[in-house]
Amino acid sequence: MKNLIAIMALCLAGGMAEAGEIAGYDRLTVEAKHRAAPMEGSIWYPLGTKTYRNVIGDNAVFVGTPAYVGAGVAEGRHPLVVLSHGSGGNMDSLSWFSSALANKGAIVLAVNHPGSTSGDSSPRRSIRFWERAADASAALDTLLADPQLSRFVDTDRIYASGFSMGGLTALQLAGVRVSKAQYVEYCERMGERAPDCIFFAKGGVDLTALPEEAFQRSLRDERISGGMVIDPGLSWAFTQESVAGTDLPLQIFNLGGPEDRWLAVDMGPRGNDVAAQFPQADYVEVAPANHFTFLAICKPAGAAILRDEEDDPVCDDPQDADREAVHDQIIASMAEFLDL
Predict the structure, then answer these.
(1) Whole-model pTM?
(2) Cα(30)–Cα(80) distance, rounded to whole angstroms?
(3) Structure confidence by residue, pLDDT tens digits, 270-307
(4) Are 94 and 163 contacting, i.e. CB atoms less than 8 angstroms apart?
(5) What digits encode the pLDDT tens for the residues 124-141?
């Protein structure tokens, strides 16, 4: 009997995670009234017990991230980060980010936004950004209704996060609203300096014909208690009233110095200076870097593949930029912000 107990103890110990190890990962099916079909969701979390190991987000261009799929969650209640990917991205393409936060002690919930993901990113559907915020809220509904997972969530510490268009989504969940008139004026004034406007124009989007009520309505999710965003989109269209009224703690990152930062996402003093207008926002500049430096580490052939496909140069960083070091800086800053 003693031998059996000893063997069971060894097996249990062998299945438990050690600090800083690979995180746990699972998939969710997200039902939403505003969507015609269920959406794909994912969750990364601090590892409790191991299962089998897989690599998430790996492809010909990007290096994937190892995970224990369907593993047990570390005991306790953990802060939750609701993550929104950028236009043309997907939840697994940000696996490096989600895994890093999970290894620090957070749960990261994400969803693939239909019509705005890798392979189905349509200008006409991506501009319907109000659907993205509803996607994130629906994913949060799904997680909190799951008795197997919700018990690990600290519901007093739920944060929104996102990159590029996903940054807009996160800020809308925190209370930011946008003005259609301001965005139309911005696109007319910026011209070729605004890659977001160019993207929508290529799809034949008539900004003036967009439904004004949907474009401008509040998408605040009262469960959100703060946010961390990276190069958020549409900031030139944020209403001054909603920015001043968004009094949640925020962390706003801009990537790149004067030569490399996209003016379209510049919320600092060289851009629209919106970051300074939030009541509780920490503004962080990260350089050398550019907008794409936030994405996953590229494989050696990644840049050439993208050039052959005439795709965006997402593997091309500015001179002296270290993508891995930029990632580490962002995660360290967010971990301090989240008190992980």
Answers:
(1) 0.92
(2) 17
(3) 999 999 999 999 999 999 999 999 999 999 999 999 99
(4) yes
(5) 999 999 999 999 999 999
What does 92-103 look like in DSSP terms, one character per residue? GGGHHHHHHHHH
Question: CA nearest 167: which of 27, 17, 320, 291?
Answer: 291
pLDDT at position 12, please? 36
What is d(CA 168, CA 229) in angstroms, rounded to the nearest whole number?
Answer: 8
- Beta-carbon neighbour count of residue 52 at 10 Å? 9
Mean predicted confidence (pLDDT) in 103-132: 92
Q: Token pair 């350089």 is at which residue?
A: 287
Query: In the chain, how many H helices and how many E strands?
Result: 11, 10
Mean pLDDT of 205-227: 95
- Token pair for residue 203? 């799809």
At 161, phi and psi to the nearest 5? -140, 155
The whole-number pLDDT of residue 7 equals 32
Q: Which of 24-38, 117-131, 264-278 is least confident?
A: 117-131
For the chain, what's the residue count?
340
In single-letter form, the type of residue at position 273 comes to D
How many whole angstroms separate alpha carbon 230 and alpha carbon 168?
A: 9
- pLDDT reported for residue 4: 33
3-state secondary structure 146-192: CCCCHHHEEEEEEEEEEECHHHHHHHHHHCCCECHHHHHHHHHHHHH
Instruction: Report d(CA 108, CA 97) in Å as an integer.
Output: 9
State the DSSP string of 70-127: TPPBPSS-EEEEEEEPPTTB-GGGGHHHHHHHHHHT-EEEEE--TTSBTTT--HHHHT
CA dist 78 to 92, 110, 139, 141, 221, Å?
21, 16, 17, 17, 19
Q: Provide CB contacts within 8 A for 101, sequence distance 6+.
A: 44, 81, 108, 331, 334, 335, 338, 340
